[in-house]
Amino acid sequence: MDAFLPENYKIPEERKKPWGTAHALLCCKDEIDGPFAMINADDFYGKQAFKEIKEALDKMNTEKRPMEFFMVGYLLGNTVTDKGKVARGVCVRDGKFLNSIVERKYVVKTPEGPAYSTDEGKTLIHLSDDNLVSMNFWGFGPGFLEEIEKRLPAFFNDFIPQNPNEEFYVPTLVGELLAENLCTVEVLETQDKWYGVTYKEDKPFVEAGIRALVNAGKYPEKLWESRND
Question: What is the dihedral of CA 146, 137, 40, 213, to 10 degrees?
Answer without folding.
Answer: -160
